[in-house]
Amino acid sequence: LAFKGQFYRFDLMTPFFNPGPIAHPKVPIYIAGVNRYMCRIAGEVCDGLHVHPFNSPKYLREYVHPAVEEGLSASGRKRADFTYTTASFVVVGDTEEELAKNRRAVKQQIAFYASTRTYEPVLAAHGWQDLTPALHRKSVEGDWPGMADLITDEMLDTFAVTGGYDTVGARLKQRYAGLLDSTALYQPYQPGLDDPRLPRFIKEFNA
Predict the structure, then answer these.
(1) How far apart, in Å, are the Cα atoms of 129 and each of 112, 134, 181?
(2) Are residues 109 and 188 in contact, defined by beta-carbon separation less than 8 angstroms?
């Protein structure tokens, strides 16, 4: 342990706490980022970027990737040296009843994130930045159901992937091809862990 920075110093390692060498000394370092500066910093000094789940292909292509590329260029690295990862909003269901229930849950989650002014660039990529103040006001008032009402079906389709248990995995791959290296499922509702469709869904997603 031997770190000496401008503000902090870490160099005290007693034998009792010393774990010794590890099998993988180069541990990849990722940071999360939404705005341009953090994305650029990730490209300059990190191994990867954890993209916020509140994203879209357009936002990634036109906002995130160019900023990361600036950072990679500054550090003399290439795209192959960097990893993009995230968790993706998904609306999964095989019946209209399932889909309607889960659409509402995902709209609620999107509304929560979109009410945060720091995340406005995600909406601005689609010309929806004026939605942020309205959502923020409702959040201050505690009107959580009213926030979800402001998320249109077009917005839902922009920020989430909808499909059945046999189709949503392929749709995720098609949506993010060339934009992400890995993703996980972000479901703001509890899937049925005993649902016999779940193993099939996971297998199809990982194929």
Answers:
(1) 14, 10, 28
(2) yes
Q: What totals of helices (H) and strands (E) does the chain contain, helices first?
A: 10, 7
CA dist 102 and 164 (Å) reads 12
Rounded Cα gap, residues 111 and 114, in angstroms: 5
Domain harbouring 63, CATH code = 3.20.20.30
Q: Per-residue pLDDT tens, the chain, 207 aa: give them.
A: 788 999 999 988 888 888 888 888 789 999 999 999 999 999 999 999 999 999 999 999 999 999 999 999 999 999 999 999 999 999 999 999 999 999 999 999 999 999 999 999 999 999 999 999 999 999 999 999 999 999 999 999 999 999 998 898 899 999 999 999 999 888 766 767 788 888 877 777 777
What span, in angstroms and rounded, lies between the C-alpha atoms of 89 and 6?
A: 40
Q: How many domains does the chain have?
A: 1
- State the sign of the Cα–Cα–Cα–Cα dihedral 172, 175, 181, 186: negative
Burial class of residue 56 in the structure, from the number of CB atoms within 10 Å of its CB (0-12 exposed, 13-18 middle, 19+ buried): buried
Domain that holds residue 179: 3-206
**Dist CA 40 CA 66 (whole Å):** 8
CA distance linking residue 46 with residue 34, whole number of Å: 15
